Amino acid sequence: MTVRDRRARSVEQHLLPTVSCVVKSMKDDHIRRLLDRIGVLRRPCDLDLLLFFIRHPRALLSSDQIAAFLGYEVKRLGESLDVLVTAELLTRTQTATSAARMYVFAVGGPHGGWLPSLVELASTREGRLAMRAALIDQRNEQTLGPVARRERD
Amino acid sequence: MQTRDVVKTGIAGLDAILSDGIPRGNVILLEGAVGTGKTTLGVEFVYRGASQFDEPGIIVLFEVSPDKLVRDAANFGWDLPDLERQGRLRIIFTTRQVFRQELQQADSLLLEEAAKMGARRIFVDGAAGLVDVSPGNGHGREPREAFHVLVEGLQREHLTAMLALEASVLFPEPSFTSLPEESIADTVIRLRKEEVQRASTRSIEIVKSRGHDSQMGRHSFRIVDGHGLEVYRRVQAPRRESRDRAAAFDPTTRVTTGVPGLDPIVNGGYFLGSTTVVAGISGVGKSVMACHFLAEGVRLGERSLMLSLDEQVPQILRNAASIGIELQPAIDGGVVQVVYDPPQEIEVDHHFHKIEQIMEAFKPKRVVLDSLSTYGSSLGTDGRLFRDFFHALVALMKEHQVAAVYNNENPELLGMSSMMGDMRMSSLVDNIILMNWVELGDTFRLGLTVAKMRANPCVRTTRECEMINGQGMRVLDRELKLPPIPFSRYSSLLSRAPDRRERANPSGGNEEIRR
Q1: Which residues of A touch B106 (CB under 8 A)?
Q2: Minimal CA–CA distance to B126: which of B224, B8, B29?
Q3: Bridge partners, B57 (sequence order)
Q4: Would you give the distance in Å from CA B247 to the centre of its chain?
Q5: What is the least distance, in Å, from the CA of B111 to any CA of chain A?
Q6: Nearest-CA residue of chain B relative to A105?
Q7: Smallest CA–CA distance from A107 into chain B, residue
Q8: How far apart are CA B375 and CA B107, in angstroms?
Q9: pLDDT above 90 (res B242)
């Protein structure tokens, strides 16, 4: 191995972990910025539900059925449905006699710009898990008191 | 007479076999195994309605994710999101349980949505589980009755409904025992994927058609990228009446052959609308004659078409150029078309459809098909398929009043025991020209015999032909100056042993017969 090769390997060994950390940090920043732009997502269930309605923009289902599709408790799912409806990302129509409701994802709604980024990021398992992790972090941060946050920092 | 209110599917070729469309409000059952194309057909039915006939529609999905459906539709050039934005299409994802309940409720969200958008068509993908036909699973009703309830719900909104049913799951081919859905549905369309040798072909059959006529039997179809479904009528299915009426040829107009020396022995040329077969073993010059025929068309400004299964276009052009016939300028000028279709795994309905389209668009006066024997080996000459195909082809050419020449490779090197080999189609043919090697001394020489000329005087003498380097073929005079000894001095040229005829000897006696 020449001196030049040895030097190159040494640079690689020292720099690569740093590069990897920088990339991860950039990605985390991107996810945080994206979640800020979406604004309404607080829990992983909110995210999974939003992604479900992106794939099924017009669904005639009961909340039990959606909960079964996504693997959440009906109560938690109901809260997430309310979140999306309140944020006007989703409209919900119901009748007196049926448990099923017509959910329509507001394709032309107030989510200008972030939808393609969200779809792209969520298109991989890694991206979706990173978003879920970011939502959990965000939620932990909000539940920590100012003292605990100072101690942590 | 009251005009029929029909829903056109808009699917290429399908309305033709459905006698223009399906009566409005019919419930259409679309049966078939996995991968036969049910979803594509159903989605196209709704897409064409919304985009071409101002008939908004709904697609109901149970398992397929709508985003995948949108993605797959985009491959056919169908912009479903755009139709949704225009309010002409709704893709609704639901479950069978909800769908079943919805159709039975007076305040159904689904039917309300349909009414709001003015939907006229609905496609339900995966209707197999809507009514569980296993005993005791009719939700308190017999399966037949349960399906009837669903149909009533759809008809309340005057929707023309298409329901895709995976029939093979319940009733594998070939039994296809009658399903309860079949007796209630107004129209039943069955899709199949059939194995032919190692290839697969798709077919569509109108099994039941309440309130409308349809062309029976299995028609072929393909799913074509960038377009969608293309249905090709069974080659045997009857065409328009004008085709049958055009069975006779025009007995006044002749089309010259372009082969020097041949026209005088075919009374000046082939009649328009006639069918001519040129038969002979490989290498006798059938394709050369075809090139002459095309070149003659170019010379006279008559559109000429060559359909080849044997040689690809560049090869045909090169062969023509080698005998001094440049076809490329004529192709560029729109006077000649040369079309090659590979004979392997030929789908006869699709192939015939293609020829019909070319004939319609190009309107040639002369057509050469090279060759009949390749059709025979591709389709098989034993069954009816080849015969039916040839019948249809002859009728098509007569309808367009073209002089059609079919090359046919006869396997016999010397002599000929049959004019059409194992094809047994000579009754359909107006003119037959036999080309044959004749072995004289140590040389193969080429003989040509006009064996049949319908409605024409026919002199069945065998004439010698020769190939002239760079110039093609010519038929020689019957009497030739010696040498060489002309054919007219021989007898039994087509049997494998030509005999010199006896000739009067000035010194008395007869000249020796030489073999």
Answers
A1: 97
A2: B29
A3: B89, B121
A4: 19
A5: 11
A6: B92
A7: B85
A8: 60
A9: no
Cβ distance A31 to A131 under 8 Å?
yes
Higher pLDDT, A42 or B330: B330
Q: Does B166 touch chain A (CB under 8 A)?
A: no
The reply to whether residue A98 touches residue B101, judged by beta carbons under 8 angstroms, is yes
The alpha carbon of residue B366 is apart from the nearest alpha carbon of chain A, in Å, by: 56
Q: Does B310 touch chain A (CB under 8 A)?
A: no
| CATH class belonging to A3-152 | mainly alpha
* CB-based contact B95 A65, cutoff 8 Å: yes
DSSP labels, B407-445: EEE---SBS-S-SSTT---GGG-SEEEEEEEEEETTEEE
Query: How confident is the model over B198-229, as pLDDT tens digits?
Result: 778 899 999 988 888 888 889 999 999 999 99
Among candidates B85, B93, B95 on the partner chain, residue whose Cβ is nearest the Cβ of A58 = B93
Question: What is the pLDDT, as a whole number, of residue B169?
Answer: 46
pLDDT digits (tens, 9 = 90+) for A74-123: 999 999 999 999 988 999 998 877 889 999 998 665 556 788 888 888 88
- Distance to chain A for B361, nearest Cα, Å: 44
Q: How large is the ipTM?
A: 0.73
Q: What are phi and psi of B266, to 5 degrees?
A: -115, 35
The overall average pLDDT reported for chain A is 81
The string of pLDDT tens digits covering residues B384-442 is 888 889 999 999 999 999 999 999 988 776 666 666 666 667 788 999 999 988 887 76
Whether chain A has a CB inside 8 Å of the CB on B311: the answer is no
Residue-averaged pLDDT of chain B: 85
Q: CA B81, CA A107: separation in Å to the nearest integer? A: 10
Structural domain boundaries in chain A: 3-152
Place of tokens 């078409």: B305
Subunit contact B109:A96, Cβ cutoff 8 A? no
C-alpha dist (Å) from residue B238 to B215, B230, B241, B395: 8, 19, 8, 11
